[in-house]
């Protein structure tokens, strides 16, 4: 087990989980400038599944995901035991931020693929047909861009895919297509777990087998209040 210092705190980080797809948090706390923003007594993923994080803004959902994804701000004070998967992908709400507006979609996906044929197959896997492959991001709808961003994120075959509010800017039809894509590419029967950050309970329960709620404020801010099975279980 390696030791990593963040300011005055010590994070005990397992260099790699003991089995593919495994990640775990035990007694983890995050604080900024002396104020605790997250407390996770225990969390674990042992095999591919889909987990939703529910709670209002400021409850600690994004900090939880940033901790697992290893992109937490450097000035965070962190304590506890953390085991992360060897490979992690991420998709944000703003698909423009993930895509180069000056490159065709297939050219971008090919950058993280073994071949152009593999890139085309990956685009097909997220529901983007051949007629869309040579388009630029601005020539795609919001839902199509989000699925292209998913194709980029899964290029390295991540063991964990973190999706942050990826349906919040989409209309119901586009949201349904993105949910369908994530259901096909993540969770049981695949090699990738999904960590979904959302305010939308309908999306969470439609897609995920596990639901985690966060307290919104006060001394219990960020505490994992409830873990329950989702409708997809």
UniProtKB/TrEMBL annotation:
<dbReference type="InterPro" id="IPR003439">
    <property type="entry name" value="ABC_transporter-like_ATP-bd"/>
</dbReference>
<dbReference type="InterPro" id="IPR003593">
    <property type="entry name" value="AAA+_ATPase"/>
</dbReference>
<dbReference type="GO" id="GO:0005886">
    <property type="term" value="C:plasma membrane"/>
</dbReference>
<dbReference type="GO" id="GO:0016887">
    <property type="term" value="F:ATP hydrolysis activity"/>
</dbReference>
<dbReference type="GO" id="GO:0005524">
    <property type="term" value="F:ATP binding"/>
</dbReference>
<dbReference type="InterPro" id="IPR017871">
    <property type="entry name" value="ABC_transporter-like_CS"/>
</dbReference>
<protein>
    <submittedName>
        <fullName>ATP-binding cassette domain-containing protein</fullName>
    </submittedName>
</protein>
<dbReference type="InterPro" id="IPR027417">
    <property type="entry name" value="P-loop_NTPase"/>
</dbReference>
<dbReference type="GO" id="GO:0022857">
    <property type="term" value="F:transmembrane transporter activity"/>
</dbReference>
<dbReference type="InterPro" id="IPR015854">
    <property type="entry name" value="ABC_transpr_LolD-like"/>
</dbReference>
<dbReference type="Pfam" id="PF00005">
    <property type="entry name" value="ABC_tran"/>
</dbReference>
<keyword id="KW-0067">ATP-binding</keyword>
<feature type="domain" description="ABC transporter">
    <location>
        <begin position="23"/>
        <end position="228"/>
    </location>
</feature>
<keyword id="KW-0547">Nucleotide-binding</keyword>
């Amino acid at each position: 087990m390696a030791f990593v210092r963040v300011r005055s705190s010590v994070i005990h980080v397992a260099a790699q989980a003991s089995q593919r797809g495994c990640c775990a948090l035990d007694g983890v706390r995050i604080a900024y400038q002396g104020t605790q923003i997250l407390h996770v007594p225990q969390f674990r993923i042992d095999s591919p599944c889909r987990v939703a994080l529910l709670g209002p803004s400021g409850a600690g959902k994004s900090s939880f995901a940033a901790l697992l994804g290893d992109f937490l701000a450097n000035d965070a004070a962190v304590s506890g035991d953390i085991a992360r998967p060897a490979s992690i992908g991420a998709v944000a709400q703003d698909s423009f931020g993930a895509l180069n507006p000056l490159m065709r979609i297939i050219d971008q996906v090919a950058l993280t693929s073994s071949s152009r044929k593999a890139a085309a197959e990956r685009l097909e896997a997220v529901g983007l047909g051949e007629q869309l492959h040579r388009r630029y991001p601005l020539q795609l709808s919001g839902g199509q861009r989000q699925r292209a961003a998913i194709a980029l994120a899964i290029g390295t075959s991540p063991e964990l895919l973190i999706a942050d509010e990826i349906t919040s800017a989409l209309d119901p039809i586009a949201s349904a297509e993105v949910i369908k894509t994530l259901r096909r590419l993540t969770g049981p029967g695949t090699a990738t777990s999904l960590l979904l950050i959302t305010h939308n309970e309908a999306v969470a329960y439609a897609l995920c087998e596990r639901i985690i709620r966060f307290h919104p404020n006060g001394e219990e801010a960020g505490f994992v209040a409830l873990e329950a099975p989702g409708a997809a279980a």
